[in-house]
Design a protein that fits this description.
The structure is a homotrimer. By secondary structure, chain A is α+β, with helices and mostly antiparallel strands. The first copy, chain A, has 3 helices and 6 strands, in the order E-H-E-E-E-H-E-H-E. In chain A, strands 2-5-1-6 form a 4-stranded antiparallel sheet, with helices on one face. Chains in contact: A-B, A-C, B-C.
């Protein structure tokens, strides 16, 4: 038995958005058949719209959330377009990065 | 004095697992001598097993957690094998990505 | 209308630090004109200084936090220096990774 697992190249999208927009984003991801995502809370932050850390930090957690999803590279363009169009009307940022996964059929 | 720090290439493992499996995962990482990790909470998510966001979101945070660890590239194979074997019996996902760090001797 | 958005290469810094150092770090990022960051909580972790998961997990969340910021590559050296000098006196870790973003003018 070997521990040398084969890994497969995928793309990770990190979508940082305001909490009130989250359900709309998750509905959009469901429509786009993006089935693997995790929602991470935040304690505060700062963006081009100003700092929101002073008021929100610790006591009012979750003003912004980060939706992390892993996609096949072939799906990035079709997903990134609608996701970005929802984010650009709001405060938020979308990043795309490279990851390796073990089970390619899941994404 | 220069701010040009030398950075070193490492691998980051993100292990997304159910909260009840976390202690077993951390024990495994301890056994494998993976000494640098951080555990991030989540608010909800969706995977090949279905969506868990509706029930868990916000009020019951922490159903899934993300264990983030940074490893020397030479250790990825020996760590990824046992970690994946624990995750594959459960709901979860493991991703591997490239990062740079300043202090290489820590990992 | 096409969904093929142009993405631009940036660098992501993940700064994992103790909660009491967070305000000093955010002040430093403000001074350095790093305007886009998000602060992520943690539930626990382990580092070269030992494990802090047993005491801190779940009930005393937020002992460590992760400041995630996205920067233009041209700014990494000038930002990483001061950030690392603050972190190295404390428990903490800084990683640098590659990301793509849609709106380059924001960083």
């Amino acid at each position: 038995m070997t521990d040398e697992l084969v890994t497969h190249h995928k793309k990770q999208l990190n979508i940082t958005i305001e909490r009130p927009v989250l359900n709309r984003m998750l509905d959009l991801l469901d429509e786009l058949k993006v089935t693997g995502y995790t929602v991470i809370p935040s304690l505060g932050g700062s963006g081009s719209e100003g700092t929101w850390r002073r008021s929100g930090m610790v006591t009012d957690a979750g003003q912004m959330v980060v939706v992390v999803c892993v996609l096949d590279e072939s799906r990035v363009a079709e997903v990134l377009g609608p996701v970005f169009r929802l984010v650009e009307k709001q405060i938020g940022i979308v990043t795309v990065s490279d990851v390796q996964v073990v089970r390619p059929e899941r994404f």
